[in-house]
Input
Amino acid sequence: MFEQEIIDLSSTVLDKARQHGLMVTTAESCTGGLIIGSLTEIAGSSDVVDRGFITYSNAAKQQMLGVSAVSIDRFGAVSEAVAKEMAYGAISNSLADVSVAVTGVAGPGGGSIDKPVGTVWFGACKQGEPPIAFKKQFGEHSRSLIRKQTVITALETFITLID
Output
């Protein structure tokens, strides 16, 4: 359903990164590598894709990206603070100029009143700038649909950051 849109957006991210001479990286939790996978699916992507961090567990977020245990304990893994720290950690631990991070509740379980299924926090960071974050509520759809919508939004975020 979204496959062509993901391919088109991925191509646009790569083209824009090339035009601006930027390297990109991802920090992914709920998508488990789908964002970086959509970029590397395109031949020649290695000239602008540095790496992807798949940090599904809280321990991985802390060890690979330097996310604070205090942030995870205080706000939860699906939060503005953690999304920002993931995006910043991806930039700090790579050769990339631009990062996008995602952490969310893809379902079908795991949701709460405060963070229902379909809640995803996005973090983004450009080298030398403070990270930003925003939240999307995709609704209680299938796990697959929530993850695809997250990939699309992450790719759109890359495009906005690079422009």
User: Anything to note?
Assistant: The chain has one domain: 3-162. The CA atoms of residues 40 and 46 lie 7 Å apart.
